[in-house]
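Incident log, support desk, overnight shift.

02:14 A customer reports that sequence design results differ from what the structure should imply. Their input is reproduced verbatim below. On-call engineer (initials T.W.) acknowledged and began investigating.
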């Protein structure tokens, strides 16, 4: 994938992206808002860059089945929080899902206290559908259906 919007470019993940992601995984607030939880299979990872080429985050489509695919996103660079970069990356992934993948459900999990992310997902069209417990965390489940 290599799709650009007005603010971000979502492209295939490359090994060179690992260094920044490792640093972000050491950021306590990033991990508190987006803890690792649950199993991951059938994964495609993408990097999020601003149009100047700076790597600011990652996004993933994973846990594919014939019925659903899960979305994950992390804007690891705090300088780009609350400025619409994540929302544009999510919109790009939604359009990719609608135009490329043949699953009826796109869903995600988010901690209920991550209000900024929840607002982003709502803005992009996700609806609240319930709660799920994974790895000791209680997550809000949100989805889009065709």
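02:41 Re-run completed on a clean worker. Output:
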């Amino acid at each position: 994938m290599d799709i650009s919007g007005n603010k971000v470019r979502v492209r295939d993940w490359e090994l060179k992206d690992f260094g920044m992601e490792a640093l972000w995984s050491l950021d306590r607030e990033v991990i508190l808002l987006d803890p690792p939880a649950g199993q991951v299979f059938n994964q495609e990872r993408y990097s999020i860059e601003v149009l100047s080429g700076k790597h600011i985050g990652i996004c993933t489509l994973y846990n594919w089945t014939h019925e659903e695919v899960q979305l994950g996103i992390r804007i690891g660079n705090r300088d780009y929080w609350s400025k619409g970069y994540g929302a544009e990356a999510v919109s790009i992934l939604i359009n990719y899902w609608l135009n490329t993948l043949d699953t009826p459900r796109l869903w995600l999990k988010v901690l209920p206290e991550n209000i900024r992310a929840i607002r982003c997902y709502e803005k992009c069209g996700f609806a609240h559908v319930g709660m799920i417990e994974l790895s000791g965390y209680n997550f809000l489940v949100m989805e889009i259906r065709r």
